[in-house]
Here is the input.
Amino acid sequence: MRVGSVFRVAMRPFTLPRPRYTGPMQEKAREFSVGPHESGRRLDLFLAEKLALSRSRVRRLLARGAVRLAGAQLGESAKGRTLVSGDALSVDPYRRPENECTRPEPDASLAVLAEGRGWLALDKPAGTPVHPLSENETGTLLGAVVARHPEIQGVGEGGLRSGVVHRLDVDTSGVMLMATTEERWQSLRRAFEAHRVEKVYQALVAGQLEVAGGANAGLALARHRPARVRVVDSEERERARGVWDCRMTWRPLEVFEMATLLEVRPETGFLHQIRVLLAHRGYPLLGDRSYGGPDAAGSAGRHMLHATRVAVDDVEAESVPSADFAELRDRLKAGHAW
Here is the structure.
């Protein structure tokens, strides 16, 4: 292999649809002030435009108490309310009904990497969702935690996201933090929002990437279910709604014949951020069919991304790559193809 050479894999083409949903992806409430030119508008129409949501989705937000006017919680019956100039609205898109809770799963396995006062660091397996989407869903990481730490119910966002501080894709393995007390949840959320948390991943990508680098790009949700994310060009980035500035750096740990083992450090957190930005540069994750990554032996149809370290203040945890990740890495090191 020539020193300084850069090899990109010939990916099969993939296209993402134009966005039809660009709703809020941030982890905190959004705030709006009604201007003079907006006075007299219906509440549901106002929020549908501001959030780029359908009126039915806005009504669901109202129904679960996610909308407040001057600090007072509104219900679904307020959908036709007439707004006046100066009205102050806040919307928490992740708020869940207060009586909603996660079903405990005492028989589910749970690997605890580290723990401290009010927090747990877990080793999430690939294929396991972090939290359920309905009260009847089982097989989630949170279900296993609730069985051992019932006090986590109601912490943070509460409901089906109780104690969840950050998120990992279903098929991403590795370190996952959860808070078991409200005080710890608040402090960790502030740290994530301020980008103070050290997050380190390992990724197996197609192609030879021998040079350390980084990315600073705008990302937007291109499709809601199943989720797809796209990179927004610079011109659209300035005028489009629902675009989030995302940053990360990477450095090669090992370069193989047709693939590279990278260490990736995201500075921001957005859905599929690492996967999309690397694919956009021509180095998709092995096994990541959603973004043009080639299938790889032993990947079991999942993308090769593992969270190896999370640290902030007194919270610190590390995880060695999962068995399937390590097996594929060793195959590549031995000179085998994907």
